[in-house]
Design brief:
InterPro entries: DegT/StrS_aminotransferase (IPR000653), PyrdxlP-dep_Trfase (IPR015424), PyrdxlP-dep_Trfase_major (IPR015421), PyrdxlP-dep_Trfase_small (IPR015422). This protein is of the alpha/beta class. The protein contains 13 helices and 13 strands.
Length: 403
C-alpha cells in the first residue's frame, strides 16, 4: 500500500545557504535524494503497524552490527540513554566513580550521575580533545571503577594509553563514542575497544535520524543482554516474529528507551550513503584547513594525530580555536553564518556538579578549549563556495576589514 508521503519542495532543498547564508547544519538536499528509499522504509513500518521496537529496528541493529564489526547493537531512543544503560549494564553501583574528561557535552558526566555513580573529572589532551591519560590516572581513588574516554569531533582519544591506565588500576573502560561512527583504532571500531560504547543518531551526527535515537554497541554478551532488558522496563525479549515474546517479569528496574521504527527507517536509508558522507566531510575539512592555515587570530586548526597503529578519523565537527571567540561568532552570525560553541562551560564548573567542589583553573586545557573553541558548518550538503564564504568572513574579522 502506498501512503501519502512527499518531500516538500525538493528544488529548494538543492540550494542550502541561499541568499549568502550558511546554516550550521542542513540535510535538505541529501535527504531529498534519499527520499524514495526512505519512503519505502516508512511505508513498510506503517503497513506492518508496529511502530516501536519492531522489525525495522531489528534490521537496523543487524545491518549496523555487521558494518562496524560489533557482536551486538542495541537500539535505544538517544545517545544519552545509551550511556546510562551501558554504565548500568557494566555494573556501576551507587557512589562508584567514573573518570570522565572535563571538556565534553554534559551527558558524558550526567549519565554517570543518572546511573547512580559519581563523575571524577580529568583534563584533556589539547590536540585531540580526548581525556589526558596522566590526568585520568591522577583522578583515580579507591572508589573509582571505570574510565570513560570521549571521542570528540574527528578522532579517537589515546586508547593505548587509556587502556594501560585502566589495566594498571583494574578499571573498566566504557567509551562515549556517541560522535564516533566510522572511527577505528587498528581496525577496531570506536566503542568496541573497551567493554562497550554508544552511538548517537541525533540529526546533526555523521549518521543522523530525524529526531533522537541512539545505540549501545558491545562484543560482550552479558552487557548486551542487560542493556536490552534495561531499555524495555527491565524485561527481556521483544515482540517481533523471530524473537521470543516479552517476559511478564521485570528483572531489573529499567527505562522506556526503545528505538522507534520510524527512526530506524531513516537510519537504514542513510546508511547507504554513509561512506560517501564521510568522504565528503573529509573533503570539506581539508578545504577549511587549506583556507584558514596562517590566518591571524586562529590559534589552532584540527590536527589528526598519527599513532603507532592505523587510525581512521571522521570529521563529525570542524573545530577551531580562535582569539576573541564570542566576537567572531557574533560577526559570523551578523553575516548569515551559524556556528556552534563546543563547549562554553567545562563540566567541572557546571552548576549541576557544584557539590563536587572543583575550582576554576584545575583543568587548564579543558578551560582553554571552552574559552576559544568554535565549530564551523560541516555537513555533506555544504558547498565549497560556502566554505569560501565562511573563511573570507573569518579572515576579514581578524584583519579588521568588513566584507
Amino acid at each position: 500500500m502506498e501512503h501519502a508521503a512527499t518531500f516538500a519542495d525538493p528544488a529548494a532543498a538543492q540550494a542550502p545557504g541561499a541568499g549568502g547564508t550558511v546554516p550550521f547544519f542542513t540535510q535538505a538536499a541529501s535527504f531529498a535524494d534519499l527520499w524514495p528509499l526512505t519512503e519505502a522504509n516508512l511505508n513498510a513500518v506503517i503497513d506492518r503497524g508496529k511502530y516501536s521496537h519492531g522489525h525495522l529496528v531489528a534490521e537496523f541493529e543487524s545491518v549496523l552490527a555487521e558494518r562496524i564489526g560489533a557482536a551486538h547493537v542495541i537500539g535505544v531512543n538517544s545517545g544519552t540513554d545509551a550511556l546510562v544503560l551501558l554504565l548500568r549494564a557494566a555494573g556501576l553501583g551507587p557512589g562508584d566513580e567514573v573518570v570522565v574528561p572535563a571538556f565534553s557535552f554534559v551527558a558524558s558526566a550526567s549519565s554517570v550521575a543518572l546511573a547512580h555513580g559519581r563523575p571524577a573529572f580529568a583534563d584533556i589532551d589539547p590536540v585531540t580533545y580526548g581525556i589526558d591519560p596522566a590526568s585520568a590516572a591522577d583522578a583515580i581513588t579507591d572508589r573509582t571503577r571505570m574510565i570513560m574516554p570521549v571521542h570528540l569531533f574527528s578522532q579517537l582519544a589515546d586508547m593505548a594509553a587509556i587502556t594501560e591506565v585502566a589495566e594498571q588500576y583494574a578499571l573498566t573502560v566504557v567509551e562515549d563514542s556517541a560522535e564516533a561512527i566510522g572511527m577505528r583504532w587498528d581496525g577496531v571500531h570506536a566503542g568496541l575497544l573497551g567493554i562497550g560504547g554508544v552511538l548517537s543518531f541525533f540529526p546533526t551526527k555523521t549518521l543522523g535520524a530525524l529526531g533522537d535515537a541512539g545505540a549501545v554497541i558491545t562484543n560482550d554478551d552479558r552487557i548486551a543482554e542487560t542493556a536490552a532488558a534495561l531499555r524495555h522496563h527491565g524485561r527481556y525479549g521483544r515482540t517481533i516474529d523471530h524473537f521470543p515474546g516479552i517476559s511478564n517479569e521485570t528483572v531489573l528496574p529499567g527505562l522506556n528507551s526503545k528505538m522507534d521504527d520510524f527512526q530506524a527507517a531513516i537510519l537504514l536509508a542513510k546508511l547507504t550513503r554513509l561512506d560517501a558522507d564521510i568522504a565528503r566531510r573529509a573533503e570539506l575539512a581539508a578545504a577549511y584547513t587549506e583556507r584558514l592555515t596562517g590566518c591571524p587570530g586562529v590559534r589552532r586548526l584540527p590536527t589528526v594525530v598519527e599513532r603507532e597503529v592505523k587510525t581512521d578519523a571522521v570529521f563529525y565537527v570542524y573545530l577551531i580555536e580562535v582569539e576573541r571567540r564570542d566576537e567572531l561568532v557574533a560577526h559570523l552570525a551578523a553575516n548569515g553564518v551559524t556556528t556552534e560553541t563546543y563547549y562554553p562551560v567545562p563540566l567541572h564548573r557546571q552548576p549541576c556538579f557544584a557539590e563536587l567542589g572543583h575550582r576554576a583553573g584545575e583543568f587548564p586545557n579543558a578551560e582553554a578549549a571552552c574559552a576559544h573553541a568554535v565549530a564551523l558548518p560541516l555537513y555533506p550538503d555544504l558547498a565549497e563556495r560556502q566554505v569560501d564564504r565562511v573563511c573570507e568572513l573569518i579572515r576579514a574579522f581578524y584583519s579588521g576589514s568588513r566584507p
